[in-house]
Amino acid sequence: MKYLIISSGLRKQGNSWAMASLCCKRFQESGEEAELLALSDHEMPYCDGKTYVDHPTTQLFRDKVGAVQGIILATPVYNFDANSAAKNFIEITGQVWENKVVGFLCAAGGDKSYMSIMALANSLMLDFRCVIIPRFVYASSSAFSNGAVTDATVVDRIYELSDELVRFTTSLNSS
């Protein structure tokens, strides 16, 4: 199986990137084929209903999502929702999300918006028939220090999410 970990935070090596990087490392240590895609490294067009379709980054992103069976989306949480880059990424890649297994890593400033990812999860389930891992990782700013995840419980939960994604994709793709 192939896996894609998307860091949608636009701050270079921010907290969502730290979570995504740790997740990718877990996949690789387990012998799984995984790639970390940091949106901050790319010029991403806005989904404007027309011109984004021909943008070279759109095709690059579609190819990356289309080539994998499982995806972890790491996103900062702003104003009780996933960041706009995560939502824009899904909009411009569209149908290639169909039937993917998806998990979430959420980095937030505080602990009050832990349910914020549910609107995006529901959209992926309904629009693209994604299977959503019923476990996600939500970490507030206290879980990070110097650009790294330092809370052992959060590290364990990231590893558990990675393992669950492998378990789900293996089970669903074995038939």
TrEMBL record:
Start and end residues of each NADPH-dependent FMN reductase-like domain: 1-142
GO molecular function term, any single one: oxidoreductase activity
Any one GO CC term of the record: cytosol
Protein name, per record: NADPH-dependent FMN reductase-like domain-containing protein
Organism whose genome encodes this protein: marine metagenome
